[in-house]
Amino acid sequence: MTVIAVDAMGGDRAPGPEVAGAIAAAREHALDVVLVGDEARLTAELGAQGAAREPRIGIRHASEVVTMDDAPGQAFRQKRDSSLRVALELARSGDAAGVISAGNSGAVLAHGLFVLRRLPGVERPGIATVFPTPTGTLVLCDVGANVEVKPTVLAQFGILGAHYDRLLHERARPRVGLLSNGTEPTKGTELTRAADEILAKAAAHPEAQFDYGGYVEGSELFRGGIDVVATDGFTGNVVLKLAEGMSEAVMQLVQAQITESVRARLGAYLVGPALAGLREHLHYSQAGGAPLVGLGGTVMICHGRSGPRAIKNAIRSASQLADRDMPAQLGAAIERHGSLWKDGGGDVASQSA
Fold first, then answer.
1. Does residue 346 form part of some domain?
2. Residue 272: its pLDDT value, please?
């Protein structure tokens, strides 16, 4: 039985949305969930939402909460009974197949590293997110876990992203690119040029399960010509937040235009369902959360402001990835190209963007 542990105290409005999302996941998708946090508050919230006896939902008590203001490493050392840490300990012990949290993303990363560890050969885990495009979806990795990276780390984001895409979208050979300021080989920085060379060698491996297309410009991200794009966490986080803000602004501009005249309002009536569908497609809650790829377990990070729908979808995504054994699949992909990392050496300093 696949059980997903939910850090029920981490979000901006916890535990209401977490509890509501867990109830929806249990009832709509027949998923088993354990809510981790203050038992009295969670019991009361379940009762208030009419799910006091929901058989698919359990509670694991945790007396502490990691806040958005907590330093990640300090929180791990000092808050040993936090809802985040207890949820991850459930995954390490095998009592949960995956974890989701809408809490402090830097703390989720740090706790994940300490509790679940990295997969063998992985230098740094990355956050992989999905964007809609006219031809399907785009996976972008990393979008905030690692502000500064080495070439080997950046190249690993391409490989981790490719195999996450294979699991999520079942594409046999994802098309991978490297984000840069131009497509010519002379563009980019020393970092991207070195990572480009590594990814080209990895794609040429006889057992490689992805194709590498080289540099990708920002203008190509949402056109559908590429499946996976690797970048550092600083740039990826800027792209993520720019895309979120741009999609909201475009919808507001469209709404303003279609209310300017009677004729426009008539047109709005006709295209209203399509616009509503587009808004739904672009909203972050559609995906629910973004996985930390490269950890020895399945962990999903959600927006701090996530509502019940986002939590429900994150639980469903975590369950699907756990059922497909994401850590083992990604670990095998990194091991397959092990010779490329031998000269890479240890870690670099990282922080959540």
1. no
2. 55
